[in-house]
Model the fold of this input.
Amino acid sequence: LEHVHDLHKDLDQVKKLLKPKGFLFIAVPNYTCYDQKIYREYWAAYDVPRHLYHFSPKAMMQLLQLHGLKMKSIKRMWFDSFYVSMLSEKYRSGSNNIVSAFWNGFVSNCKAIMDKRKCSSIIYVIEK
Done:
């Protein structure tokens, strides 16, 4: 979803394709996660210029409501915090500091245990 050029048009098109009570799964990075706070402008999941949109759980909820879709649940993507932290370390320092990347990914996941809306990347389970 973060890659599409016409977010609202494309989401409306997907909604038309869904059967009543049909499900849609959207996986996107979460810019309100802990690892974003560590890496800030070097956070790899911003992935400019390929990521045209960035989402928080609150923004995703508002977007879905705007299009008449229901968020049924949120699932954590545990491994993304490690992957994004490894890329972010490279962007920030120019080196592969695997220990720091692993630690930051680990801490990010620990924070997400308490609040799944803080996970580095999230899968949204959506119903028409």
About this structure: Residues 7-127 form one domain. The two ends are 17 Å apart (CA to CA).
